[in-house]
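Lecture notes, continued. The same structure-token format from the folding unit now serves as the input rather than the output. Read the line below as a description of shape only.
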């Protein structure tokens, strides 16, 4: 089944995602505040509207891919012009609480809503190989799944509204902590006189194996495609990792969960992202850990 889709937020992720929906045969009308994003989307067959409300008018499915919960909540206030009963799918990474408020806003306006944040980065968005983590009722999940499958390789139903965002913050807390763990190991190895390649050859096939090491290795050499080989050009920006770890730490505080390492990771990334590191790939955290060791 093809949909008339309104797509709001055509940035690094949303742009290629909208392009993949066009490729799958959907009628996609999009909007972004940034002219460059609008132009790029138009080049990929997205019909560009003059406002978010115009993009969504008459749509039976609305996708948002915006920076933060504030952006999503603001957008949801304005998007009531969608066709009655439209399915709202928010793919941004936002707090579980904000996701539930957004879903309530959509429902009050006579629509349905699911949260469907993603993992896989810009490369995954371009290659339509994202993993979607979905919080939805069963019928809404059934309707969203084939649309999400046009933009990703895995679509996981995590539970009711908010469960997708819960899975996303937990996953990225693992990722933030494991990137720091891998970076600390390389810095200690350097002080012990161990070559990067030797540590990689052992840990990548031993119990230290993890994605932060084998796909996004924070030192140049062992994984030629990792951002460390191109001066840490992102990739997944440290500022976004700081945001996601902040969401995890806030959730832990609200629910009285200790999550000590998650909180420490949030502090380290917040400090790193506040300076020039914010735009760099999150694996560049190794540079501050190395400075601290020197
Ligand atoms: P981005 O900054 O490239 O894109 C966001 C876009 O939203 C921008 O182009 C901006 O102009 C637009 N925008 C902001 N307010 C708007 C409004 N009111 N109306 C229309 N457009 C508006 O960010 P991104 O990298 O595409 O990330 C989007 C979301 O996806 C974030 O929540 C992020 O945490 C999440 N995410 C990003 C990655 C990644 O690797 N970049 C991976 C997974 C998840």
């Amino acid at each position: 089944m093809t949909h008339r889709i309104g797509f709001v937020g055509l940035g690094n992720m949303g742009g290629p995602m909208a392009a993949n929906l066009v490729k799958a045969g959907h009628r996609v009308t999009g909007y972004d505040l940034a002219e460059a994003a609008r132009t790029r989307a138009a080049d990929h067959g997205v019909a560009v509207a003059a406002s978010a409300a115009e993009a969504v008018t008459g749509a039976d499915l609305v996708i948002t891919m915006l920076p933060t919960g504030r952006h999503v909540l603001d957008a949801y206030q304005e998007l009531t012009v969608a066709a009655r009963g439209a399915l709202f799918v928010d793919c941004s990474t936002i707090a579980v609480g904000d996701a539930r408020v957004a879903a309530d806003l959509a429902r009050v306006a006579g629509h349905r809503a699911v949260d469907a944040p993603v993992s896989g980065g810009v490369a995954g968005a371009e290659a339509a190989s994202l993993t979607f983590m979905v919080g939805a009722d069963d019928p809404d999940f059934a309707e969203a799944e084939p649309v999400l499958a046009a933009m990703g390789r895995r679509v996981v139903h995590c539970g009711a509204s908010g469960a997708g965002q819960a899975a996303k913050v937990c996953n990225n807390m693992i990722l933030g902590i494991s990137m720091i763990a891998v970076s600390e190991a390389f810095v200690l190895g350097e002080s012990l006189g161990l070559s990067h390649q030797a540590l990689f050859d052992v840990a990548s096939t031993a119990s230290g194996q993890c994605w932060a090491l084998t796909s996004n290795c924070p030192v140049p050499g062992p994984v030629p495609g990792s951002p460390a080989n191109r001066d840490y050009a992102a990739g997944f920006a440290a500022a976004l990792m700081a945001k996601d770890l902040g969401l995890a730490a806030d959730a832990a505080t609200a629910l009285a969960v200790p999550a000590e390492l998650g909180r420490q990771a949030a502090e380290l990334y917040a400090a790193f992202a506040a300076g020039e590191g914010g735009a760099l790939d999150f694996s560049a955290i190794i540079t501050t850990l190395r400075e601290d060791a020197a």
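Point for the exam: Strands lie at 4-8, 27-31, 47-48, 61-64, 87-90, 112-115, 118-119, 130-135, 152-159.
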